[in-house]
Write a structure and sequence with these properties.
mainly beta; single chain; two-stranded antiparallel ribbon
Length: 45
């Protein structure tokens, strides 16, 4: 595990990833700012 930190990081949204130290599996965290009603771009079909 990583160390806890009091550092504040300001971001609009992001995708975080890391390898699990136990099994090496990929762990993903998606940060979405719903306050501003942002969404993924939709295709124009």
């Amino acid at each position: 595990m990583t160390e806890n930190s009091d550092t504040v990081i300001q971001a609009a949204g992001c995708v975080l990833w890391r390898r699990s130290p136990e099994a090496g599996d990929l762990r993903i965290c998606l940060v979405h700012r719903h306050t501003y009603d942002e969404s993924w771009q939709r295709s124009s079909r």
